[in-house]
Amino acid sequence: STICGDRFRCTSGQCISRSLVCNGDQDCNDGLDERGCEQDSSQYSCDLDKTPPNSELTGRGYDVLSGKLRAGVINTLSFGGQCRKVFSGDHKVYYRLPQNVLRYNFEVTVDNENIDESYESSWSYMQHIQSNSLVGHDRRTFHNELTENKNSKLIILKNKVELAQFQNSAPQYLTLAEGFWKALSSLPYTYDYSAYRHLFATYGTHYLSEGALGGEYQAFLELDHQVLEKSGTTDTEYQRCWRKVKRRFLRRKVKTVCEKITNSFASSGGHSIHNKPVKVNVYGGNPALTAALLLLDLENPEANGEKYDNWASSVKDFPDVTDQKLRPLYELVKEVQCAGLKKLHMKRATEEYLAEEHP
């Protein structure tokens, strides 16, 4: 167990400052620090304990190989005796910020313009995300069914909805979630890759240093080079037209000189233009509304747009983390016996774990 010195020891063995005892907040997970206290609210550190909606997401671990959030690694319930408040204009109420959140803004933004991307092929897209995923710029997502070939151009239609933006404190100031702290405590002192791999499966490889809460929709359209050539689409036309595809598929049907591109997509794959399967990544939003986004009716963009709008409206009730910046999880190895040694072991294990995917 950890030696707490003159600090207060929670039942779990985690240590907290004595100044947090009997301050009206549960700084130990089981509330041991508030037991046997006289009920004197004048000693309480704050008159508010409601944290922003879904702020627990800011403390979750993240696995860069799967692109998925994992269990909590940062404590999002402790206030550290601070009484910092943030106002939500949408909810018309104040919320109290957890100790570990350095900055939190309620600002709703919708970004549908100029964030689409075009790649010469699915293969070049795969190269792009492989080079960017490990430094935390891209949410790493691989479509097993997205053909890694060089015969199709790839257009990615993107829409983003943000509800709030956050930044966590520097690692030396972060307090750890109790479950993660216990997992660190029980790691062996000698290097055992399987023990660390087991920890990564639960808590991920990284933590969030900043990001946004909201949702993101990405649709992947593959356009066969041969079909494009048959349609007479020149490179110049393609460069001029590919950005107009979203408006044509999700808003309204208009006859334009760019119709060749949409016809090329419609005629590839042999599916009905009224029920065209689309490969999508959807983060956030009501899962029940996601299935509708997997099919587009190329003759009815208004209906497609309505499906998208329904999903976007549901993001406020089902947010995910987007636009995240990541830091390696081994930075949070502290407050346990032999922390320096375990940090080195975790760094080595992280490199080994990522090398399984990138030999």
UniProtKB/TrEMBL annotation:
Gene3D superfamilies: Low-density Lipoprotein Receptor
Major subcellular site: membrane
Domain MACPF: from-to ranges: 42-359
Alphabetical keyword list: Cytolysis, Disulfide bond, Membrane, Secreted
Domain of life: Eukaryota
Disulfide bond sites: 10-28, 22-37
Database matches in SMART domains: LDLa, MACPF
UniProt family annotation: Belongs to the complement C6/C7/C8/C9 family.
Protein name per UniProt: C7
Organism listed in the record: Epinephelus coioides (Orange-spotted grouper)
